[in-house]
Amino acid sequence: MLAGLLLAPGAADAAPAGFLETIHKHVTLTSSVTDNGDLNPYAVVVAPVSAGKIQKDDVLVDNFNNISNLQGTGTTIVLYRPSTKQTLLFAKLPQTLPQCPGGVGLTTSMTMLKAGWVIVGSTPSRDGTTATKGDGCLIVIDPEGQPVVAWSGAHIIDPWGNMAVKDDGDHATLFISMAGEGLPSPKVIDPKTGLPVVMNKATILRVRLRVPNGKPPEIIDETVVGDGFSQRADLDNFLLGPTGEALAPDGTLYVTDGLDNLITAIPNALDRTDSAGTGRLVTKGGLLSWPLAMVMTPSGRLLACNGKDGRVVEVDPIAGKQIYAQWIDNDQAQSPPGNGDLFGIALTPDGTGFYYVEDDVNALMRASP
Amino acid sequence: MSASDDRARTARTTRRGFLSAAAGVAGAVGVAAEASARTAPGALDGATGKDRVRLAFRGRFQNGVACPVQAHTYFAAFDLISEARADVAALMAVWTAAAERLTAGLPLDHGFVSPKASEPDSGEAAELPANRLTVTFGFGPTLFIKDEHDRYGLAARRPEAFIDLPKFVGDQLVPQRTGGDLCVQAQSDDPQAAFHAVRQLARLAEGVAVIRWVQSGFTPSYDAKITPRNLMGFKDGTLNLAAGDSKAMDRFVWVGEEGGPWMRNGTYMVVRPIRIALEHWDRMKLAFQEQTIGRHKASGAPIGAKDEFAPLDLEAKDKDGNGLIAENAHVRLAAPETNDGAQILRRSYTYDNGVSYVAERWPPWRQGMEFDAGLLFICFQRDPRTGFVKLFERMSKFDMMNQFVTHTGGGLFAIPGGAAPGRYIGQALLEA
Prior knowledge:
The structure holds 2 protein chains of 2 kinds.
Chain A: E1 7-8, E2 25-31, E3 39-46, E4 59-65, E5 76-81, E6 86-92, E7 106-112, E8 118-122, E9 137-141, E10 147-151, E11 164-167, E12 171-178, E13 189-190, E14 195-196, E15 198-210, E16 218-234, E17 238-240, E18 242-247, E19 253-257, E20 262-266, E21 280-284, E22 291-296, E23 302-306, E24 311-316, E25 321-327, E26 342-347, E27 354-358, E28 363-368
Antiparallel strand pairs in A: 1-25, 2-28, 3-4, 4-5, 5-6, 7-8, 8-9, 9-10, 11-12, 12-15, 13-14, 15-16, 16-17, 18-19, 19-20, 20-21, 22-23, 23-24, 24-25, 26-27, 27-28
Chain B: H1 3-23, H2 25-36, E1 72-80, H3 85-103, E2 134-139, E3 182-188, H4 191-204, E4 209-218, H5 246-252, E5 267-276, H6 278-282, H7 286-293, H8 330-334, E6 345-346, E7 349-359, E8 367-381, H9 388-398, E9 405-407, E10 411-415, H10 427-430
Antiparallel strand pairs in B: 1-3, 1-4, 2-3, 5-8, 5-9, 5-10, 6-8, 7-8
């Protein structure tokens, strides 16, 4: 859906210069739908290097749904090559993997390491709801698109939100939100709200990796650096929980919490040895409307995609202020426009724009000056 | 007697009955020729004076492709149940003869024997003018290969262009409303004349072919100078290929030598029932409806223009440099300019199948009793690979309208050229 530029003024302050006001063009790049019918694009990752099938600056997009449009069943990753405008299938994983006993359903958790390995999260289902949700896993894929190893366990339960990554080549640190542990069927309703029950069990996991030369990465350790985040099942959206993570140069990890409609900060995330709980509140409400995936701009602003409308919101995390928002999906077929359409987001390599997905039309988009 | 014996006997009986109908073809042709003599010559420009409601059946092309669109259509796809090519040939012979009579406004007479029917004609069109009835026949890919089996020894004659349609993004094709070995398109300005034609042909097919699926449709009775509106409320067909432009028709619609002798002067028909989520569409604001289509609703003019026939300015930009006609607007994606010049001849109808329980496949995923209505999309082209497939491959992915429409069935059919006097449709294929 073509986005229309519409700047909403800041809630209280006169708008200072920011990133979003430089963004004017919104272009559809490709469809994420694959030959096997997978759809519903979630994660967006820009390749940092060339390796195997992948060229540097290619855009990887995974699909959460299969041809039946059941959530938690997508197994494919497509690759868009900006230099040639080609779209290729990067990986088509089996519906089941030995180390992912619950099945495979690829989520917003995805990254590509400088060593060429792609790591993607899975939070699977059999019927598109959490009633049949299986245990999730993290799958390591080689640059040719073949899965080589998968991780699951006590902390790696349902990798859900977009990864924040610090990649030093032979070592890397991943931050991944885990949402979904113990979630019942969306038909289990909280009588107080009339909605599926909310559980404060979602976590932010830090996974430190060793990346031996020419070999798949290995886990050094896993640390829960945030916990107590809200999560609940949802019939239309599978599950709701913390979905956006962005790592600031100073080591602060910013997290979106869609259910509570806020962004928090976990200080010292690279080094801390304990959980910061849900962290320090950065901003809440306002232009935010169920924030999902999030990135940090080169100047240190946060861009958070709204789940309940088609806006991306720019936040100054130091000042704790929302600057403004831009409608990047104004599809009025939903109400409010773009409701339920946005998910993943990633900066373009030159840092002047961003890639994002529109679930309503299964498209990868580019926003640029 | 076992059940299987019973079925075998029934099959033999119906086959004999059918063949006797085929044996009567010569006589039927004679009668039809008599009626045809009263029909103005020329395949399409038809008739004047008292014959104004008749269109000539025989000619270089089949008559239901390029003639001005009638008010009603009745489309039927058939599965062949006989394994003998001679039965298929005999069926096409008797169908051709019957169609010639029906399009002349004459009932079937005793030259036509339906195996189980008590009378040669069911009678509901007695004294009813044909009302520009055309009957058009087509062959499905499964006539050539079905379940990897070349039942009739025809696989070698399947033209390269006669592909199996690929699966398109968003297709929700119901098998029971998809495909078919043969098809019949009956179109008339009278709905009963169209239905009557298919009904007679189905009777004549007994023992050889059975109906697989049908879909009726209608067009609104606008003045001929006004582009008709579809159920979305927009003018539909402003940029259609002009059927009177013989150069364009030769280039984009009629098959030349490339399809082999039997497809010379033929064409390929894509038919797709497309359900429209009318309830969802009706909740959309006018400006958004117009953005989706890429035209203004009232005038039919491209966004930013005043006149319906103003050229589509696909380069026009807004102040941010985004297209004035939205990037994924229906008209942009369908325009020849964005499709390497590809064009097709559209001949679509509105359909209305009442209401049914529907789970919409787009947000907000509404469920409930909804109109089962939409567009019976019909188009003709010289090569589906450079026609419908080329156009729809991108539209199926990106068209904003996809949020309101779902393709629920259909198929691709080869429409052979018209039949010369004394010959039947498809004869060059089935007897070669």
